[in-house]
Design goal:
Blueprint (H helix, E strand, L loop, with lengths): L6 E7 L14 E2 L2 E2 H11 L5 E5 L3 H9 L18 H16 L3 E7 L8 H13 L5 E7 L8 E4 L2 E4 L19 E11 H5 L9 E5 L11 H18 L4
Parallel strand pairs: 1-4, 1-5, 6-10
Antiparallel strand pairs: 2-3, 5-9, 6-9, 7-8
Length: about 240
């Protein structure tokens, strides 16, 4: 795998605090901080050259270093609040290029809110760009749980179909509906120029990387921690041969 055009950088955004769950990104999940799962998978991924955590907290930074990530800077004040992820990743790429004297060719954004991200998920995202030179980005997706063809909104007193289109008669059978996919938040891979010049993590030619529904748990609320813990315990028991 040639690195002549620059390194593959992995950035894990980990802002301190959280609106719904206090200090969500470092909260313990099955004995380890949530942040640690993204770091471990990113460091194990074969396509990644450097793994850095972008945070505004020295406490978070120390935890990230403990699990093997580099934290070469703390975010500036203007990026410490709830800002678009694109701004955070652009800042990280710019800092690395200016201070380390290297060129970034691809940046992988790995979210620490997805504890079941695997090294292979990250590798598949990066490899998608290495194999398809016309693609500008890739991201992990999973099939939607609730198809929008079955959704409604309320107008006055009555329900109205959300999709204002003529649906085919056979759509009355769910198996006949076209498959739809949604980003699961695990990983995005983006070419440098798509990010830095267009300000986009997801470009116009984005390759899907499919991930199973059961691994697509994204931690956002208290309930999500409970679901992740149950899945994690079942995986642990399975690895021990317990049925």
């Amino acid at each position: 795998m040639s690195r002549s055009d620059g390194i593959v950088l992995c950035v894990i955004p980990a802002r301190s605090g959280s609106r719904r769950v206090r200090d969500k990104n470092i909260r313990q999940l099955l004995g380890s901080p949530l942040l640690s799962y993204a770091i471990k998978s990113s460091r194990t991924a074969k396509t990644i050259d450097k793994v850095i955590v972008s945070t505004d907290s020295e406490v978070y930074a120390e935890i990230a270093r403990r699990y093997g990530a580099e934290v070469p800077f703390l975010r500036p004040r203007e990026l410490a609040d709830d800002v678009p992820t694109e701004h955070v990743i652009k800042h990280a790429v710019r800092w690395v290029e200016e201070n380390w004297g290297v060129k970034v060719s691809i940046v992988a954004t790995v979210q620490c809110t997805s504890p079941f991200v695997e090294p292979s998920d990250i590798d598949r995202c990066v490899q998608a760009l290495m194999e398809d030179l016309e693609a500008d980005s890739s991201m992990t997706v999973t099939e939607v749980r609730e198809h929008p063809a079955w959704t409604f909104y309320v107008e006055g007193k009555y329900l109205k179909p959300f999709l204002k289109v003529e649906t085919k008669e056979e759509w009355g059978v769910s198996q006949m509906l076209p498959k739809l996919f949604i980003p699961n938040g695990m990983c995005y891979a983006t070419r440098r120029d798509t990010l830095m010049l267009e300000g986009r993590i997801v470009g116009h030619r984005c390759v899907p990387v499919f991930v199973e529904k059961w691994r697509s748990v994204e931690i956002d609320e208290e309930m999500d921690f409970a679901i992740a813990e149950r899945i994690g315990i079942e995986l642990l028991l399975k690895s021990m041969g317990v049925k």
